[in-house]
Structure formats: C-alpha cells, structure tokens
C-alpha cells in the first residue's frame, strides 16, 4: 500500500483520490476550505465533455466518465451531445476526424447563431458534466472508504519537494510516498512551475419560458457567432444557460485584476451566440480563473520533486481530463509499490 497525499479537493484531486483508493492505496486529501470547496476552480454548474478538440483520448474519457457515474452515483453526465459549427467547405475532413458524428443544419438549432456558410458537426458521445454533482458524488464515495482521510480547512503554506511533505498553516505537516499538488490556481504559488494565469468570463442567462424544453434537449455548442468564437452549455437538471467566447478569455497577472473590460464583453455575449438575445435575461456573470503551461498553452502534469507531482496547468478543459491525470497518478503509485 502506497501513502498518497493530495493537496486540493477540486475535480483533479478528488478523481485521483477515487482512482488511487480503488487501487488499494491509502489517500489523504487536504484543502484550504471545505470539501468540496465552493470556491475551487472546479465548482461550477456544468462543464463540456467532448470527444475531440483538446488533448486526450476523447472516446476513453467518455467511457471513463460513464464508469465514474456508475461508481459514484449522482447522475452527473448529461449525454446530450456537442455541436461544433464548421465551414461547409472541408466538412468531410471534420466529420471524418471524430467517431460517432452527425451533421446538423443551422435550421435544426434555430436559437443559436451560426457563422455564415457553416453547419454543425455533432459528436454523439459527448455532453455536459454537472460539475457540482461530480464533486459532491466523489466526496460522498470517499467518505465511505476506510483508507481515505479528508482534511478540510487545512491550508498548505509550502511544499517540501525533496521530502514529499506538505507544510500546513497550523504548523503541522503531512507527508506521503507520493504527493500530488492540485490546488487549482493556487498551485503555482506552492511549487515552481512555468504557468500563466487566464481569466474566462462566462454569462448565465435564463431562456424564455416557452423555450425551456427546447433548450434542455439542445446539445452543447461551440464555434458560434459571426466570428465563430462563441460557445454555450445548455440548461437542464437545475442549471442555467451558460455562454462565453474564446475572446472572453485573457491572460491576467493576478486573481484580483480589474474586470471592467470583461463585464463589457459579457454584455455583448448574448448578441454573439443567441437569436433574439433580448429574450434571455442575464442572471449572473462569473470570472473563472485557470492556469496553463506557459510554453504550450495547455494543461500539464509536471514532476517537481522525486515523489512530488503538480497539476499546476489545468487548461481550459482541465475538468474533463481529470480521469487521465488520475490514471497517471495511479500508475506512479503502482511503480512506487513495485520499487
């Protein structure tokens, strides 16, 4: 049995804890707040799960999230598909690059704005993950495991990468055979990694009452708007309609940098992706922060000590790729056990 210590109770830390506990290891999860932590980067209404696009094996992740849902319960994967607007020219290549797809015309999604001369390529093994439900389901499962210890309100102030030990704000410490630092945007303040901070502004709106059923059956969508930069996650299972655009993500220096320009962009977001935008009242605007590898702009798992690994760069799709990180940590634990 390997002693695994995880700093951070977001999706990466919790899914890794589940994976390692199932492999028979002893796991301790510490977090600076409650577990799950409503202030974590992972805590949101929903996140997209696609089969293509960003790094990672999309088909594997689709199957793995289904397995996690079966194990943890919570009904958190809405398999509603995901559409990406693509130019009519070159459509054959777009369809051929992804398994289990269908082509849908803009007329079948009349409440979304498609770029001119574009159609939708719909991935069938895709949809949205109800993020808050994922975190709560993982915590419920972990609490029932005798080899798992959850330690909320334990702020990590430093990481001794040589000794594989976390120093805590109360003067204590916790060490393991293997340490994963997955504290979201706070990770880069604990270990030395080459990351940059991004802020994504998202807008939550409420659809007109007569369109509620239509929207709850609609797929997630990307490539929207005249410029093809808009995206949305549909409402359903108690969530709102979530809107944003790639142009509403920018590099920032700190978590507290002024967001006036982002608010202006948020006001224009409805016009970018929705037909009849004035019918969709804005319920909330949220500024989400995440870090990326400064060299690649992507997510990364980085070795920062002999037995210490950091998920400092989570990328824009860090939520959906959490099972891949969990697999890597479990493989490292197996190697440590065999050594």
Automatic annotation (TrEMBL):
GO terms for molecular function: flavin adenine dinucleotide binding; sarcosine oxidase activity. InterPro entries: FAD-dep_OxRdtase (IPR006076), FAD/NAD-bd_sf (IPR036188), MTOX (IPR045170). Residues 4-332 form the FAD dependent oxidoreductase domain. Keywords: FAD, Flavoprotein, Oxidoreductase. SUPFAM superfamilies: FAD/NAD(P)-binding domain. Its cofactor is FAD. This is Glycine/D-amino acid oxidase-like deaminating enzyme. It comes from Nocardia mexicana. The lineage of its organism: Bacteria, Bacillati, Actinomycetota, Actinomycetes, Mycobacteriales.
């Amino acid at each position: 049995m390997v002693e695994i210590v995880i700093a951070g109770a977001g999706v990466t830390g919790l899914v890794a804890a589940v994976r390692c506990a199932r492999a028979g290891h002893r796991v301790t999860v510490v977090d600076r707040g409650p577990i799950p932590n409503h202030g974590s980067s992972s805590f949101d209404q929903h996140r997209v799960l696609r089969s293509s696009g960003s790094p990672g094996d999309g088909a594997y992740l689709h199957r793995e999230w289904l397995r996690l849902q079966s194990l943890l319960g919570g009904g958190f994967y809405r398999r509603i598909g995901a559409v990406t607007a693509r130019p009519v020219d070159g459509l054959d290549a777009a369809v051929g690059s992804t398994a289990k797809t269908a082509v849908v015309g803009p007329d079948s999604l009349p409440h979304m704005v498609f770029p001119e001369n574009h159609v939708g390529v719909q991935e069938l093994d895709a949809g949205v993950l109800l993020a808050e439900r994922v975190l709560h389901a993982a915590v419920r499962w972990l609490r029932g495991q005798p080899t798992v210890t959850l330690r909320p309100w334990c702020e990590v102030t430093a990481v001794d990468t040589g000794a594989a030990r976390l120093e805590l704000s109360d003067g204590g410490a916790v060490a393991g055979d293997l340490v994963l630092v997955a504290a979201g945007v706070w990770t880069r303040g604990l270990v030395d990694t080459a990351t940059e901070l991004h802020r994504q502004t998202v807008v939550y709106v409420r659809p007109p009452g007569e369109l509620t059923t239509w929207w709850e059956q609609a797929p997630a969508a990307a490539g929207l708007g005249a410029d093809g930069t808009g995206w949305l996650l549909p409402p359903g299972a108690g969530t709102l309609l979530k809107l944003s655009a790639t142009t509403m993500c920018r590099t920032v220096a700190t978590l507290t940098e002024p967001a006036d320009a982002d608010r202006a962009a948020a006001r224009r977001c409805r016009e970018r992706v929705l037909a009849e935008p004035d019918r969709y009242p804005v319920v909330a605007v949220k500024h989400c922060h995440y870090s990326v590898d400064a060299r690649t702009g992507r997510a990364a798992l980085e070795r920062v000590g002999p037995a210490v690994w950091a998920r400092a760069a989570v990328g824009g799709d860090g939520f959906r790729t959490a099972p891949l990180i969990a697999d890597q940590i479990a493989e490292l634990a197996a190697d440590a056990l065999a050594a």
